[in-house]
Design a protein that fits this description.
alpha/beta, Aspartate Aminotransferase, domain 2, Aspartate Aminotransferase, domain 1, 3 domains, 7-stranded mixed beta sheet, 14 helices, 12 strands, binds pyridoxal-5'-phosphate
Length: 472
């Protein structure tokens, strides 16, 4: 084997062709996969072949094998979970990241990606309206970005009571109380498990799933000691955000660290029309968001933002002679090394597609992206509202719409018919003790035609569901 440039050309040409074929198929293919995983598993290549295969042939086989089982998640008519598409500049930049093959851990070793990620980080702080001196780390997703913020919080609140976590560990440490709203994302509980913090203390929420500051005040006052308050920007169902200013005021009275899970909802802060929903959010201590959701960069790209760089680097910094890390002292931290801000040491330069996405959009384009998602959610809600028997059960303030079609049974039938129809994809879920169809508008490319086609698909699904019900 040799690594002559030609060794790559044929395989990359094939990859480009297959990628373009896939992207060109999005407007017309059914959104859902045509085969399930069990069917594909039966067709898979079996044991590892004994002899080599040419790279270009491997890529052809891969594309042909995968095609029927791909979900058109980058489609403008994909509204499942909360899943962004990919902006052209971000996708192309992601390919370059792979071709460059930089280990993005160290400023000294890979200066280009370190500086591009620093720039992407400062652009993010700018558009999100967060403190310009915060540290930004690029993680796999929002789960790990939440882990980073909460890890920094754990370190800091224990430091406040004189407990050196790095030396003493958690065993025997004062109990850290973590407060969360009843409708936080489940991964918050998961990250608390990773962190050895146990189960959170649950605070009541209102009709839109927003944490109630009055209840936070009551439950915080019921105990004392180190505390973390974990707020949410963007409820998965309603899209609403916790009342930041009021909740942060309560948290401050108890000396708590405030972390915000804003996987998609933090992006409301970008828009002059939407940012009122997040007033005060910049006063938190740490924030987690995804670039692979609202910003529409490829997976994997979460963003961990921490207002106290010294704390963050105390958690994730590693100082051994072989790494030759950036010079920094507690007094003058400097930009730091990328690895001091995230759990991984070796990793791809996943912040570079963020640079490319923001560079291609500019400030105006970034605002237009976020406003456009919210406007399409509004348009879908308005169209659905006018159909008989349909009820929207959230206030549509951002990108999320929750719909019922009468009884739970009818809602489930409509959801099944819609997914079988294939021209739009929306998730079934359960909220406020009801089965719902949940729409999340997260794709940059969704346009008026996608909205219209999706509404027609829902109408067809309703008709088919009712025919089904009569037959039963
Ligand atoms: C998506 C999401 C997460 C998890 O993010 P991943 O990128 O999937 O790890 C956490 N919180 C909220 C509110 C989310 O929407």
């Amino acid at each position: 084997m040799s690594a002559q440039p030609d060794a790559y050309t044929e395989a990359l040409d094939r990859a480009l062709l297959h990628a373009q074929t896939w992207l060109a198929s999005l407007p017309s293919r059914p959104v859902g996969p045509r085969v399930d995983a069990d069917t594909l598993a039966a067709l898979s290549a079996g044991p590892l072949p004994p002899s080599p295969t040419a790279a270009a042939d491997v890529i052809d086989e891969l594309a042909a094998f995968a095609e029927p089982g791909l979900m058109a998640m980058p489609s403008g008519r994909f509204f499942g979970w909360v899943i962004g598409g990919t902006l052209p500049a971000a996708l192309a930049a992601d390919w370059l990241v792979s071709a460059w093959d930089q280990n993005a851990a160290l400023r000294f070793a890979t200066p280009s990606t370190a500086v591009l990620e620093d720039t992407a980080g400062s652009w993010l702080l700018d558009v999100l309206g967060l403190p310009s001196d915060a540290d930004v780390g690029f993680t796999t997703g929002a789960t790990m970005a939440n882990f980073v913020g909460l890890a920094a919080g754990r370190q800091w609140v224990l430091e406040q009571v004189g407990w050196d976590l790095n030396r003493e560990g958690l065993t025997g440490a004062p109990r850290v109380r973590v407060f969360v709203g009843a409708e936080r994302h489940e991964v918050i509980d998961l990250t608390l498990r990773y962190l050895g913090l146990g189960a959170p203390i649950v605070v009541a929420v209102d009709d839109e799933g927003r944490l109630r500051p009055d209840d936070l005040a009551v439950v915080m006052a019921a105990g004392d000691g180190p505390a973390i308050v974990c707020l949410q920007a963007g409820n998965l169902h309603s899209g609403a955000s916790d009342p930041m200013a009021a909740a942060i005021d309560v948290a401050r009275q108890h000396g708590a660290w405030v972390h915000v899970d804003g996987a998609f909802g933090l992006w409301a802060a970008v828009s002059p029309h939407l940012r009122d929903q997040l007033t005060g959010v910049q006063r938190a201590d740490s924030w987690a968001t995804d670039a692979h959701k609202t910003l529409n960069v490829p997976y994997d790209c979460g963003v961990a933002i921490v207002s106290r760089p010294a704390v963050l680097r105390g958690v994730f910094g590693v100082h051994t002679s072989y790494l030759m890390a950036a010079d920094s002292t507690p007094e003058n931290l400097g930009p730091g090394d990328p690895f001091e801000k995230v759990p991984e040491l070796s990793r791809r330069a996943r912040g570079v597609p963020v640079w490319a996405a923001l560079r291609s959009l500019g400030r105006e384009g970034t605002i237009a992206l976020v406003d456009g998602l919210a406007a399409n959610a509004r348009a879908l809600a308005d169209g659905l509202q006018s159909m008989p028997g349909v009820l929207i059960i959230n206030r549509v303030v951002f990108t999320q719409v929750c719909v019922t079609f009468g009884s739970d049974a009818r809602t489930r039938r409509v959801t099944q018919q819609l997914i079988a129809d294939g021209s739009a994809w929306m998730s079934g879920s359960r909220w406020k003790d009801r089965d719902i169809l949940r729409i999340s508008v997260s794709n940059w490319s969704t346009d008026a035609a996608d909205v219209a086609l999706s509404l027609t698909a829902v109408e067809r699904a309703c008709a088919a569901a009712d025919r089904d019900a009569e037959r039963d």
